Amino acid sequence: MAAPAVKGVAVTALRSVLLRVRHAAERAGTQPERVRVVAVSKTKPESLIRQVYDAGHRCFGENYVQEFVQKAPQLPEDIEWHFIGHLQSNKAKTLLDGVPNLAFFEGVDNEKIANHLNRAVSSIGRNPLKVFVQVNTSGEASKSGIDPSGCVRLAEHVKSRCPHLEFSGLMTIGMPDYTSTPENFRTLSNCRAEVCKALGIEEDQCELSMGMSGDFEQAIEMGSTNVRIGSTIFGPRDYSKKQPN
């Protein structure tokens, strides 16, 4: 009998998040429609994802390949799926074969994974895959992502050497306690300016994916166009079945 209560909580939480996103965008002078909310559903059952889907949401994110390729086929094909985080290059084809409606890959953190994704997209003949380059803005050894000094080179590689990938922007994951997120966000914004200058593109053609449950409003106020919200919508996570990527 718990399902209706869970459903109510998740849907109510989603609506609250969307309202907070709207207000943050308005404070930033940005159209709320320009900010994408990725509902991060890792470790959550298909039934709960479907409830949020039935409330009108279409953009979801997953972090673990094995879990992702099992869940995605059980859910509607019009979901805009995002893969978030580090991926071993030898699992690129597994991911793309298992999730044909993968819309975004967040994020590419080295040339090797970019090359593997490019080949995997080509081999299955799907449309180009949109990718964000992941930048390690906090300097933590435990975090994936390229050093800010290398983001231009990696973005140029994706743009010029990976015809089956579409460079779409930059992403970062802030500090666990969120104490330095303004600095992290500023670093990513600075990287965007450098990348856009090098690639000869306008800044509005380069998205910023930054901000999670604890800091997404501040991220939007500092220019984020893509926020990744998990526990605030879906509740605490059970990591007992976590599998490496």
TrEMBL record:
Needed co-factor(s): pyridoxal 5'-phosphate
Pfam families (alphabetical): Ala_racemase_N
Gene3D superfamilies from the UniProt entry: Alanine racemase
InterPro entries in UniProt: Ala_racemase_N, PLP-binding_barrel, PyrdxlP_homeostasis
GO molecular function: pyridoxal phosphate binding
Domain Alanine racemase N-terminal residues, every copy: 23-237
HAMAP family: PLP_homeostasis
Protein name (database record): Pyridoxal phosphate homeostasis protein
Function text: Pyridoxal 5'-phosphate (PLP)-binding protein, which may be involved in intracellular homeostatic regulation of pyridoxal 5'-phosphate (PLP), the active form of vitamin B6.
N6-(pyridoxal phosphate)lysine PTM positions: 42
PROSITE patterns attached to this UniProt entry: UPF0001
Stated family: Belongs to the pyridoxal phosphate-binding protein YggS/PROSC family.
The entry's keywords: Pyridoxal phosphate
